[in-house]
Amino acid sequence: QVQLVESGGGLVQAGGSLRLSCAASGSIFRINVMAWYRRAPGKQRDLVAAFSSGGDTNYADSVKGRFTISRDNAKNTVYLQMDSLKPEDTAVYYCAIVLGTGHDYWGQGTQVTVSS
Questions:
Q1: DSSP designation for 62
Q2: Lateral strand order in the sheet of 18-26
Q3: I need a surface site. Which of 67, 80, 82, 104 has the fewest CB within 10 A?
Q4: Residue 17: what are its φ and ψ, rounded to 5°?
């Protein structure tokens, strides 16, 4: 069993910053992909940022230059540093991992609200 626990969401004014964390625990041998997604009200869930299995990072165009994904492999933890936040970044943010087995797991989601 694998669990993901997210933290760091909250309410912030436009231009502010937040840092999300997601810690994975359980039967983990190898993590291939670590990623952050978000779902804004009334919209589908979209990829925000991710580490590929090769270690490369990719970002949604809307967050490039403002968000930074990082990871601590020893702790099986992935972070999302969000700077210069905008009201349109308001969403529920989810972390996700894909293990070497091919199974994927999702966090419970954390609310990020950016006020104008």
A1: T
A2: 2-7, 18-26, 77-82, 67-72
A3: 104
A4: -135, 150
pLDDT tens digits, residue range 56-114? 999 999 999 999 999 999 999 999 999 999 999 999 999 999 998 889 999 999 999 99
Pull the structure tokens for residue 11: 């309410």
Beta carbons of 100 and 111 less than 8 angstroms apart: no
For 11-40, write each residue's pLDDT tens digit: 999 999 999 999 999 988 888 999 999 999
Query: Does 55 have pLDDT greater than 90?
Result: no
3-state class percentages of the chain: helix first, strand second, coil last, to nearest 5: 5, 60, 35
Give which of 98, 96, 93 is closest to 110, Cα–Cα: 93
Q: What is the dihedral of CA 50, 96, 72, 33, to 10 degrees?
A: -60
The answer to whether the CB of 23 falls within 8 A of the CB of 110 is: no
How confident is the model at residue 6, as a pLDDT? 95
The pair of structure tokens assigned to 62 is: 């809307």
CA 70, distance to chain mean position in Å, is 10
- For residue 37 the two structure tokens come to 């997604």
